[in-house]
Amino acid sequence: MSVAELKENHKAATETLNSLKQRLRDRRIQLLDTDVAGYARAQGKTPVAFGPTDLVCCRILQGHTGKVYSLDWTPEKDRIVSASTDGRLIVWNALTSQKTHAIKLPCAWVMTCAFSPDGQSVACGGLDSACSIFNLSTPLDKDTNLPVSRTLSGHKGYVSCCQYVVDDDTRLITGSGDQTCMLWDITTGLKTSVFGGEYQSGHTADVSSVSINGSNSRMFVSGSCDATARLWDTRVASRAVRTFYGHEGDVNSVKFFPDGNRFGTGSDDGTCRLFDIRTGHQLQVYPPHQQQQKGDSNIATPNVTSIAFSISGRLLFASYSNGDVFVWDTLLAEVVLNLGTLQNSHEARVSCLGLSADGSALCTGSWDTSLKIWAFGGHRTVI
């Protein structure tokens, strides 16, 4: 058989495979006769009661001179690390608003940051295609800068996201513009697994977000500019466990649901979605911003930039490119509060958000260079 014939056979087989995949997706959609919200309403469930005094801005963290792109909490809930285009990581005391560290970065174009589980180290990555690790207890150098304790080099594109493996300070997962995710051994500085890349089950565009399953640290999910999310098992790097479709734009944020059996996504198409990792089904769509607020239909739908779940999973926090932060009732797919309409709300795109480990406070970061800490107030308890 000639090379030309092989190519034709391969092309025909690929088209047949894609056709079968589409038929399978269509059939799954036909079988999904309801969603979470529809079932909950049928059971007589009512939305969470939320008022403007139930979540209030109690701290404003000011110190960055550039857009804030990323933030992360320590497991102890009392410190936050933030990354900004001013070329610095700042570690904040969330209780006092004081800065404990201001770290000058080797590359000013930083896109992500993360705290280690023990809170002793921070990691960051950006357009230098590397992930830099800083030990916060290391003495300052002669220029009063905190030196890099380890550089993880191996990606062929920018590092868009990073997260430490749950309860393991020596392993970290990164996502990159080279369409891959990598698992690293920080002790040696070597990558131990590559997810995607030359493998057909990998992403076909930049990876933008990763989230590690808190119930099973061998599993993680990645979101990409190819409009999909993919589930991975760190023991089997050669193929994704499952691919999740539904979005019509870049998937900017992924986050596991507290029980580890589901995860949420946020996309440039303006929607958030909830997926089940066991069945691969989409359980719920949290519709675009335009459908939540009546107005000019010609206004572009704001992108979802970041998401987080409350500790029970009943609330979904989603930030948007227009500065809004919606608090969704995940069960009924209704917005119960918009932080963008409250006093002390951000004045520009909200690029990142994160919930403290005990669920008592939400932190948001914005292109207005500030971070804000929102705490449950009034009669409201942690949900």
Overview of this protein structure:
This protein is mainly β and 383 residues long. Helices cover 9% and strands 42% of the residues. The protein has two helices and 28 strands. The strands form seven sheets. It has a four-stranded antiparallel beta sheet, with no helix packed on it. Strands 2-3-4-5 form a four-stranded antiparallel beta sheet, with no helix packed on it. It is globular and about 70 Å long.
Tell me the radius of gyration.
21 Å
Shape: globular
Q: Kindly state the percentage of residues in helix.
A: under 10%
Look at the helices and sheets and give the structural class.
mainly beta
Give the low-pLDDT segments.
none
| Tally of helical runs | 2
The number of strands is: 28
Report the sheet with the most strands, covering strand number, pairing sense and barrel closure.
Answer: 4 strands, antiparallel
Element pattern in H and E: HHEEEEEEEEEEEEEEEEEEEEEEEEEEEE
Please tell me the overall pLDDT. Answer: 92
Could you give the distance between the termini?
64 Å
With strands numbered from the N-terminus, the spatial order across the biggest sheet is 1-28-27-26
Q: Strand-residue fraction?
A: 35-45%
Keywords:
383 residues; mainly beta; four-stranded antiparallel beta sheet; 9% helix; 42% strand
Structural topology:
Blueprint: H1 3-31, H2 36-42, E1 55-61, E2 68-73, E3 79-84, E4 88-93, E5 99-104, E6 110-115, E7 121-126, E8 130-135, E9 150-153, E10 159-164, E11 171-176, E12 180-185, E13 190-196, E14 207-212, E15 219-224, E16 229-233, E17 242-244, E18 251-256, E19 262-267, E20 272-276, E21 282-286, E22 304-309, E23 315-320, E24 325-329, E25 334-338, E26 350-355, E27 361-366, E28 371-376
Antiparallel strand pairs: 1-28, 2-3, 3-4, 4-5, 6-7, 7-8, 8-9, 10-11, 11-12, 12-13, 14-15, 15-16, 16-17, 18-19, 19-20, 20-21, 22-23, 23-24, 24-25, 26-27, 27-28
